[in-house]
Design a protein that fits this description.
The protein is mostly helical and about 280 residues long. It is built from 14 helices and 2 strands, in the order ααααααααααααββαα. The radius of gyration is 23 Å and the shape is globular. It starts with a helix and ends in a 6-residue tail after the last helix.
């Protein structure tokens, strides 16, 4: 009976893993297939004439469809915008979260709910006012404009999540530090902040992935100087149809930073997803 149950569980787990990895394999398969063979019937599950031309086009701007692009600039722009916006959101969000977690007042919960409610606005409802404001101050098609937009959109989520982690820390630890001579600022940096590193890892990963993959703000607020990887994928759709090989190659490039970040921070992610972040 136990053996039958074990075989059943392993079979279900294997099918779940296969269903999860099949889209990834198909993405890699299309990225390594020449454009002329992608729509062949029946479809080939292994490239007949594998090529790195699609990856070459995405990275350096040549190959694949023969369209000349400065492919590397998309990844560089995305890395700059995602990294800077994530760092700023974590700094500002952790300050706000700490204040809300330690502020003993009925208004603390109300303000926290109001902050979270701003995250519920769909981006489509705010992108036009943001665009008009950025045109007025001259922030369109600049890295700083996208960074500000992404910080504003990620900040409520980071604040709400980090508030739960700070509330999970006993205030007595900071009081003991103050007794030893620490100021409130030192108690925050030397006691509270190191204890919420798992929360910073989780919130940072979510904020980075949002900024890295976001399309709507990028397509409205940028034109030629600061396009990001999602815009690069969209650029492979033209009057001649979809250039699937280049799109899948760009998807592979876009997947790498998130995977590496999750791998590096996996120890903190496991703690962060199972501890203080679930507390309100």
């Amino acid at each position: 009976m136990k053996r039958t149950r074990r075989v059943f569980l392993y079979t279900v787990a294997g099918l779940a893993v296969a269903a999860t990895l099949l889209p990834v394999y198909w993405m890699v398969n299309i990225a390594l297939t020449p454009q002329g063979e992608i729509l062949s019937y029946p479809p080939a599950f292994v490239p007949i004439h594998p090529t790195l031309g699609n990856l070459s086009e995405v990275i350096v701007g040549t190959g694949g469809s023969g369209m000349a692009r400065d492919g590397l600039k998309y990844a560089v722009n995305s890395l700059i915008v995602a990294t800077c916006s994530t760092i700023l959101a974590l700094i500002l969000g952790s300050f706000a979260a700490y204040g809300l977690a330690r502020w003993k007042s009925k208004w603390s919960d109300r303000i926290s709910m109001w902050i979270l409610s701003t995250r519920m606005f769909p981006p489509a409802a705010t992108v036009i006012p943001i665009y008009l404001a950025f045109v007025w101050v001259g922030l369109t098609d600049k890295h700083v404009g996208l960074i500000i937009a992404y910080v504003a959109y990620n900040l409520p989520f980071v604040t709400w999540m980090m508030r739960g982690f700070f509330r999970a820390i006993p205030p007595e630890l900071e009081e003991a530090a103050r007794v030893e001579g620490c100021s409130n600022v030192k108690a925050y940096f030397h006691v509270a902040l190191p204890l919420v590193r798992p929360g910073l890892a989780v919130a940072g990963l979510f904020a980075f992935v949002f900024a890295w993959n976001e399309f709507l703000f990028a397509v409205v607020l940028t034109q030629m100087r600061s396009p990001t990887i999602p815009l690069q994928m969209a650029s492979y759709q033209g009057v001649k149809g979809m250039i699937w090989g280049s799109i899948m190659a760009a998807a592979i490039v876009a997947s790498v930073p998130g995977i590496l970040l999750a791998f590096v921070a996996q120890k903190h992610l496991i703690k962060g997803l199972t501890l203080g972040g679930v507390k309100g």
